[in-house]
Structures are given as structure tokens and as C-alpha cells.
Amino acid sequence: MNSRTFQQLLDQKTKPIGSLGGLEELAVRVASVTNDTRPGTLSASLTIFAADHGIAEEGVSAFPQEVTGQMVSNFLAEGAAANAIAGELGIPVAVVDCGVKDVLVSREDLINMRLGAGTANSAQGPAMSQEVAAKAISQGQSYGRSLTSKIVCFGEMGIANTSSATLLANKLSGILIADLIGRGTGVDDAGLKHKKSVLERAAARTGRLAPIDALAEVGGFEIGTMAGAMIGACASNKVVVVDGFIATAASALARALAPGCEASMIYAHRSAEQGHTAMLEWLKAKPLLDLQMRLGEGTGALLAVPIIRASVSLFGMASFTDARVSGRSADK
């Protein structure tokens, strides 16, 4: 069924037409993507894509690069915020190594999609080759198609990935670095000034770029793989829940590479990173929540899942006819 048919179904329910506002709009979107109006069948999953970034060498993060590998271990030990929220919601978590510099664990439950031991320093040259950029998208597409859940949440981990996301967003949108840059892991004022200088220098190496070229020049292994996963999931009738700033940069790349895939995307929340608001406005995307979060890991995406399921539950309401409730009177 198409979106108009689903909207007509909701309009017959025991409520004034449109009285549930954006929740109705969300229900129609989800049903149109999945062709399912049963919230109990809308299984969800979270995948966290992890990788390191060579631009960390420029001192753009408040944390050292080894934290990426340490956090991967923490995810696998179910000790992170994403694990806590996912556990409460009964959502399974998968962790993907797209190119962590220091892998501290070797476990079967760590999915291997390594493209190298972190990208090169994009302030000095291309972050990766064209071939690796294409592989990131391709392997992500295969992964996105393979997921069995109908609601897919994607998160990320990688020291300096707000820098890569800022540069990628700049190349795709033309938004100034100054309007995209944020504190990331919590750099102080001096650190933010330094980060801005580094990113403006990195951005100046090239002009506006085609999407795959932008990924190669300034992107991250996990951002490219996530973008591919979004494309694959959207193409296989799944709802893609977009997390914060970095995931939104990945979604912008996905939308540029596969126009139309945004119909399957739901933007979970507005991050406290100033660049996220700029990106959401450029994409004309309306986030569901605004909790001033800026952690990443898919935490915001997870919080959107109960809202998505609740929206679809509206299809289970009685109609005016079923409930023998009088509907709207004809105009006289």
C-alpha cells in the first residue's frame, strides 16, 4: 500500500483527523517503508561501526587515539551507554571493526570489515584511496541488506570522527567549517580554535567534490561503511534510524550516492553539536527528539525506537464504525 492509503486508514480511527500530529506522519512513513502496521513485528537492532582517523595526529580531539580500541572492548563487554539503553529496550548490539588502529580484542562477536589501521591524515592528503572508499560503500551495502530487523539503528565510534564528519559535511553541502565545527569529545576553547584551523586547512586542499571523492579525501572508514549500510537497508525495505552528527553526515553521503533513500530514514534527535543543526536544516530533516546529547554510539537512535513502534500502534485503534462512535458531521 502507498502512504495515502495508510493515511486514510488512520483517518478512520477514533480521533479527530490529524490530532496526533507528527506521530501520525511517522506511522505512515514507517508503514509505507515496511508495509507493516503491526508494532510487535518491528524488530530493531543497533550496529556500531568503529574506526580510527589519521587527522587525530593533528591534536583535534581531547582523547588519545587508543580510546577507540578501548571503547570497542567496552561495547563488547556491554559496558557503554549504548549497551545500557539497548539492554533496557531489548535491542541487540553488533560491533563492526572498519579500521581500528589498536584492536584490543579478538572475538567472534567483533565483525571484521577492516579497511586498514585507520585512515591517513586528511590534513596532509587523501584519507583513503578511491578503491578503499568504494569498498567501504560496497561492504556497507551488503551488510545493510543482510540485516533481518525491520528497524535498523546505526552508531559509531572513532576518535577524531567529528573532524572527519565535519569535513565530509562541508564537501557535500558547502556549509562553512565554522558553522559545522563542534567540541566533539569536549575540547576547550583553545582546542576548538586549533581544531577549526586544522579543519579549514584540510578543507582547503580541495574544492567541492563528488560524493565518493569526498569520502576518499576527508571521510572515515566507519562513516563510509555506515553510509553504505544505510543504502543497503533502505533498498531492502527497512527503516533506518539516523543518530547524531556523524551518522547524519553518513546519511548525507548515502542520500547523495542513492537519491531517494531518504524516504526510509528517520532522524532520531538533534545533537548538541552545532553542526548537526546546520546539517539537519540543509537536509530538511525533522528530528524526533532534542535532549542535548552528543555521545554518538547510536544512543539517540535507540531512544527513537519506542516512539517509532508507538506510532505504528495507532493502526490498531478501533475505527469509528468498529467502535460505534459517531464521526464528523457533514457541513451544513
UniProtKB/TrEMBL annotation:
Catalytic activity entry: 5,6-dimethylbenzimidazole + nicotinate beta-D-ribonucleotide = alpha-ribazole 5'-phosphate + nicotinate + H(+)
CDD domains: DMB-PRT_CobT
Keywords (A to Z) from UniProt: Cobalamin biosynthesis, Glycosyltransferase, Transferase
EC number: 2.4.2.21
Molecular function via GO: nicotinate-nucleotide-dimethylbenzimidazole phosphoribosyltransferase activity
Source species, domain of life: Bacteria
SUPFAM superfamilies: Nicotinate mononucleotide:5,6-dimethylbenzimidazole phosphoribosyltransferase (CobT)
Pfam families from the UniProt entry: DBI_PRT
Family the entry assigns: Belongs to the CobT family.
Protein name: Nicotinate-nucleotide--dimethylbenzimidazole phosphoribosyltransferase
Organism field: Croceicoccus esteveae
Upper lineage: Bacteria, Pseudomonadati, Pseudomonadota, Alphaproteobacteria, Sphingomonadales
Chain's gene name: cobT
